[in-house]
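worker-3 :: picked Integrase domain-containing protein
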Amino acid sequence: MRHERQNPNSRNFGLRSRDISKAGLNALKEDIKSFSSISTMHGRWNRFCSWLKTEHQIKDMRDITHEHLQEYSSHLSERCNQQNLSASTAQNYMSAVNRVMEIARGDRTVHVAPVAEGNLPKRSGIAKTNKSVSHDVHAKSQSALTPRTAALLELQRELGLRFEESAKLNAQKALHEALQHGYINIKDGTKGGRLRTVPVQNDAQFKALRLATTFQNGRSMIAPGQSYKQFKQDAYNELKSLDITFHAERHHYAQTRYQTLSNIACPAASGIKHGFEHYRYIANTLKISLKEAKDLDHHARMQVSQELGHGRIDVTNSYLG
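worker-3 :: C-alpha cells ->
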C-alpha cells in the first residue's frame, strides 16, 4: 500500500524523508511496481545525489534545476570520454535522474534528454557530429567572458586541457618548460594524478600560456580568495548563456592535432564516415595505400589519445569520429 505524500511544497516535495536519496526512493515506489527496477534506479539516483552534494551542496530536491541536470550530463560525458563509463551506462544514469525528478515534481520541467540535449555519446561511442568549437564561436565567447575565464578557455583550446587541469596549471612554470623543451608537463588536476606531456609547437599555444601567466595566482589560475569548487562553479555559470562548453574546446584540440599529425581532416571534421570510408578518403587524398592510410590514422589517434590524457585509442572516437 502506497503512502500519501505530505505537503508537496515541503522539503523534497513531501516525499516523506528529509534525505534526498530516500526521498528519491519513495518517489520510485510511487510509480514502479518491480522491486528490482526500483533498486536499480535508486542506485543510479544515489550516484546523482552524491555528485549533487559534492558539487553544489544541495540537499533538497526542490533546489534541483534543469542546469544541474545539464552539468551532471556533462560530467557523465567526460567520464565516457575517459573510458571510465560506457555510453549505455551514462544514458541509464541520466534516465534514472529524469524519471525520479518527473515523479517527484509531477512534470517534465527538470528533464534533460541524454543524447539530444545532454550531449551524451550514442551507444557506439563514435561521434556523428562535429562538437568542436569553431573559430567564430570561440572568438565571440572570449569577448563575453571575464578575462580569467577567457584565458582558461584558451588553455583548453590550444593545449587540450580539462577544466581542472587548466584551473590548476602553474602557467609560469609551464611557459618556462615550453620555451626550454618544446612541451609542458601536466599533472595537477589530472585523472588519477597521471603525468603526461603536451607538445607546444605553435604561436597560438605560446600566446595562451603567456596570457595565462598574467592571471596566475600563486601556483594556479584559481581566482584569489576562492576554493577550486567555488571557482569552477563561477566559471560554469559564465558559460551558461553562451553557445559553448569547456569540453568542446578539447574537441577542437583533438581535431586540430589529428590534422597536424596526419595531414588530413578527421571523420567528424570532414564528414567522412568512420572506418573504411575514411581510410579510403585518406588514401585517395594523400596518394598512399589503404594500409598506409590505416597505419597513419592509428598513429595519429594514439598520439592524440596520449596528449588528451587517456592512453586508449578507442576513446578518440568521441572526439574525432
